[in-house]
C-alpha cells in the first residue's frame, strides 16, 4: 500500500513545481518510515515549501485538546507556522498571500467530532476565496470505509466538533470528504486529490502495515478510534471519559459508579462485538483529577460487528437509568449543551432523559442510509 504522500513524492510533485507551497499537517503526516511530511517536502528539490499551518494540537502534536495554538517558528525547518486553532480557524488572506498552493496531509480518526476535517473545510473555503489550489494527500480511514453510523448535524447545532451534516462514523477518507465538501456543501476550491494505492474499504489501520501515530494526545490506539464514535459523547456528561489515563475513551467512569455492577449490566445488553470489564482509575487531569473513579473498560471482540455509536448511546442511557441521582449532562456556560454539539442535535439528550431511544435510532438510521447514497459519488476506493 502507498499513501497519497508517497505517490506525491514519487511522481505527483509536478503539481507544485515552480509554485510556492503551504502545508497543513502535523505529527500524523509521516511516510511508512515515519519521516515527517514537513521535513520530506522541505528537503525535496522540486518543492518550494514556504509556510506551515497548524491544526488543533499543534504542528508537532504537543498541545492538549482545546488548547489554543499561537503563531510560531518551526524549530526544525525555520518556517513560519500559522495557527488554525487560536484567534482564527479559517486562514486569512494575509496567511495565503505568498502561497500558490496548499497541501493537506493529516490523519483523520474516522469520527465526525475530530476537528482536522473542519480545518480542511475552512482551508478549502479560504483557497476558493483567494484563488489558491488545494491538494489533499490522501490517507486511510483508520476505522474502515464500509460502515456508516449515526445522525446528521442539525441546523443550529454546528460547531467545530460537528460543522457539516455527516454521520458520527462517516467511513470516508479525507480525500473523499474533500470531494463531498466541494460538491455537496459549497467549498468550491480548485481541488486535487493524490490518491493512495492499494487501500480498500474493508481495511482497518492494523491491516495497512503502517505504524499507529496518535492523531492527538488522547488517541493512543486503534481500539480507541473504533470506540470513539460512541464514547466521545461521554465528554458531554459528568462521567470521566478516561482522559488523563492510559486508556482514554476505552475506559470511563465516575466516583459514584459501581464498576462490577455496571460491567455486568452492560454485558447483559449483549452489544455485538464488545465486552465490558470492571475498571478503576485515577485521572491525572480534567474531570475528577486525582480522584479515584470506578467504571468499565470496553474490550472489542469483533470489530466487524461492533456498532460504536449505538453501543455508546445505550451505555450512556444505562448509566443515566442506574444513577439518576448522580448522572448529569454538563450544563453549558453559554449556548448549547456540549453533549448536544457532539450529538449534532438536542433530540438524543432528550431521548436519554425520557428513557426511550426508539425514535432517535429510527431517525439516525434513515439519515445514515441517505448519507450512504450521497457519499457514493465521491468514493475513490472499492
From TrEMBL:
Protein name listed in UniProt: DUF1343 domain-containing protein
Cited InterPro entries: NamZ, NamZ_C, NamZ_N
Species assigned in the record: Shouchella lehensis
Residues of the Peptidoglycan beta-N-acetylmuramidase NamZ C-terminal domain: 226-381
A Pfam family it matches: NamZ_C
Residue stretches making up the Peptidoglycan beta-N-acetylmuramidase NamZ N-terminal domain: 21-222
Entry superkingdom: Bacteria
GO molecular function, one term: peptidoglycan beta-N-acetylmuramidase activity
Taxon lineage: Bacteria, Bacillati, Bacillota, Bacilli, Bacillales
